[in-house]
Amino acid sequence: MNRTNKYAPVVLERGDLLSVENPARYTGGEWGITIKQEVLDEIQRTGETKYIRYAFCFPDIYEIGMSNLAVRILYHVLNQCPDVWCERAFSPWKDMDRLMREKYIPLFSLESKTSLRDFDILGFSLQYEMCYTNVLQMLDLSGIPLRSCDRGEDDPIITAGGPVVYNIEPMTDFLDLVMIGEGEEMIVEFMAEMKKYKDSKKTGQPMTRETFLQNAAKIEGVYIPAFYDVSYQEDGTIREVKPNRPGIPAKIRKRVILDMDLAPYPTQSIVPNTKIVHDRAYLELFRGCIRGCRFCQAGFVYRPVREKSAKVLCEQGIEIEKATGYDELGMLSLSTSDYSELPGLTDRLLSAFDGHHTSLSLPSMRVDSFSLELTEKVSETRKSGLTFAPEAGTQRLRDVINKGITEEDIMTSLALAFEGGWSSVKLYFMLGLPTETLEDVIGIADLVRKIEKLYFEVGRKTGQRMRRLEMTVSTSMFIPKPFTPFQWERQNTMDEFVQKQQILRDRLRSKNIKYIWHDLDTSVWEVVIARGDRRLGPVLLEGYLAGHIFDAWDDCFSLGKWMTVLEKHGLKSDFYAIRARTPEEVFPWDHIDCGVRKDFLLRERERAYAEQTTPSCREHCEGCGAAGFGGGVCYESK
Amino acid sequence: MNQSEREKAMTLLAHQPAFIYRLRFSRSGSLSFIGHLDLMRTFERSLRRAGFPLLHSQGYNPRPMLVFALPLGVGISTTDDYVDVSLAEARDIMEVMAGLQNALPDGLRILDGWPVPETGGSIMAMVTAARYRLQAQQIFPALQRLFLRSEVTVEKRSKGQLRMLDIRPLMLALEHGETENENEAIVLVCAGSHENLRPDLLLQALTAFEDFPLQEAANCGVERSGLYAGTYPDLKCFKEMI
Ligand code: SF4
């Protein structure tokens, strides 16, 4: 197709921008963005460019997408590639979506306002399952065929990566290529293949899409869904997943970055002009988690733990603060307290920021005397809230899920905190965990009540004047996720969940306690999608065409409508959600290899039933398989 | 900020004079579509990137001391706006201007700057009038007709409530742009913390009284081109108050 207006920037009228919520979502122009003027010049001169035009796509609104660390890292990595210009695009909110459809305005990149249709690649960052239909929205608004099989030689290549790709099967109809695991190195190798593909188009013998994808499939971690056939048994479970081309691997192994100190990291990252959800600079302390909580997917798929050294983090922290002007530096990891050089790192950063009015934020911290002291030192607004995630109400169930936190731990640290003047506590629990009984649910209420009593006891003992106690108790629904020891488990039914919530509502009535519970409906759909197979592709497509977007937003989501679509396609949510699996069942994600072996997960599952805990990777290696990557915590001396 | 830092900051404020620099700036392009709070944050971060010793406000949540002459609405560009920046140390004005310019995102430009005395009074309280350049098809004749009226009462939404307001007394003068064409108009209106006529209200009046097309009003280019102190007609331009 030879379109004369290729690469012409999309122009939005002032009135249009002023008619939507927060127009700064669509205008770009932030500090720290990359504009490759040479590309624009080349296009002006010749109408084409030899550069790879990469649109980094985030299927949610700007304020959420820009808060994501992966977006910042990969934007940087791609723009470091001399042959690539990476720009950004986000899901337009519903008001803008409507306006763009009415006025035939195509979706465009924020940097050069180029229509996404004119890019060589659209790379989607998929952070949660509920954003899937927004991928379709973005493709549709760009005028790109939604299904991979409908795309032609001139269409952009549509790729995806991110934490949900460990089971990406429900989305495979729409994706040409998926990157499994950490992207920093893989994406550079992928760009090299892409460059050959793009260059070939100018020669007399252009490479076909098929050949290009076959070449890309040779890169470790790259998964081409169309190169695998899935067959099903009569009962609806999977018979097998098999490559349908010669030379295609039976299993796709995830990629990891072994040396975090050498991993590229943007210190000059983009600073948005408008307030975003997490409006701060970040440091990434480490990847993975040593703990192995049995419900937590991140704890398994990101193995093994790999830390960045405090020296490198300190240098990066100082540089980022200076280069971005942010007055808050967030420390990111799955469990901040487990970072081995935490005291040294925070000390050094705090002294470097002396007098700058810069604060550190340390989420995911265990509460103990060290962290309480640290919290006082690091944050501008002190004594905000303390957060605990016991996840379960009884020790028995905490052992089942391998949450290494005891009631004594909680009570000792809270006594310490209350003495220090803290008066606000947040507690997170999960309902519907495997083996859970009503006794365990009541245990949640009992624990909360004990904490409430403790607060006033501390007041009596110390004679302090205590402020009003504010306790927030929040319960979410257990979702059995792929690649966890609980991947074989069933989810609770709606009725079971409702009953459990009711028990807690009755027992947590107090002026000091606020009880909030997650939306049940979203959890049901989330588990269907998280454990779903390729048969969900047409369901997602139909749901999208019926207008279901922004499912991650509770007020946009409607379970009833999705159930109707699902049933129309002869599928049942119970099959995905409520059904327990046998150890022999072939999972839709079995051809993905995250490094952790299935037999290890099964062993962990048996231990869960025996109420036995498993030590952390630092205490003892349980031989999960992740040592096969050849680095990280597995090779630290124990 | 911890206790000792806070004390340090308070001592700073108590014993050390503030060095205030008044900066004249313009904004255009994508930066015109951010709100006032976002603009403040953008200036704060840019000043931090430039590495200036910013003075901070006291209290629970200390912020750099920046005072803008008059908030800019979303969608309005400017060629003549002012912000007062307080530093803990004296700096050369050229250094302040150049340093900040290098740290600002595209679309914000520092045009001029000079030190002002600490006792000079708040810049916000000084503003009394603003000049806007409006660009839309046939906007000049429409405004001409509106200026002929003795009363222009429009619905104004303030703090979530609708009330009726006669904006005619706030409309001070109408002029042609440089090229004397019908599609451009310069209006002078009351502005500041006392009485303020926002340009969108003026455009709303045009659609209500002069049959000005809604579409034209929505897409009308709005640029602030002057800020004044004093009493009309004896207005004093800020840029001449060095
Ligand atoms: S191989 Fe051992 S140390 Fe490495 S991640 Fe697995 S359990 Fe942990």
Describe the structure.
The complex is a heterodimer of chains A (638) and B (242). In chain A, strand 3, helix 6 (132-142) and strand 4 (157-161) form a beta-alpha-beta unit. In chain A, the strands form six sheets. A six-stranded mixed beta sheet of chain A has the order 2-1-3-4-5-6. In chain A, strands 15-16-17-18 form a four-stranded parallel beta sheet. Among the domains of chain A are: 14-249, Response regulator (Rossmann fold), CATH 3.40.50; 258-262 and 275-381 and 597-638, Transcription Regulator spoIIAA, CATH 3.30.750.210. The model of chain A has no long low-confidence stretch (mean pLDDT 93). The termini of chain A are far apart. In chain A, helix 4 crosses helix 7 (183-200) and helix 18 crosses helix 19 (559-568). Chain A has helices spanning 14-19, 37-46, 62-65, 69-80, 94-103, 132-142, 183-200, 209-216, 298-301, 310-324, 342-352, 369-378, 395-400, 407-419, 438-462, 494-507, 520-530, 536-545, 559-568, 573-577, 598-609, and strands at 52-58, 84-90, 121-125, 157-161, 177-179, 222-223, 228-232, 238-243, 252-253, 281-284, 286-287, 306-307, 328-332, 359-361, 386-391, 424-431, 470-477, 513-517, 592-593. Chain A is globular. With 638 residues, chain A is of the alpha/beta class. Chain B is an alpha+beta fold and 242 residues long. Chain B has two domains: 3-125, Alpha-Beta Plaits, CATH 3.30.70; 127-240. Chain B is built from seven helices and eleven strands. In chain B, the strands form two sheets. In chain B, strands 1, 2, 3, 4, 5, 8, 9, 10 and 11 form a nine-stranded mixed beta sheet that branches. In chain B, strands 6-7 form a two-stranded antiparallel ribbon. In chain B, helix 2 crosses helix 3 (93-103). The radius of gyration of chain B is 20 Å and the shape is elongated.
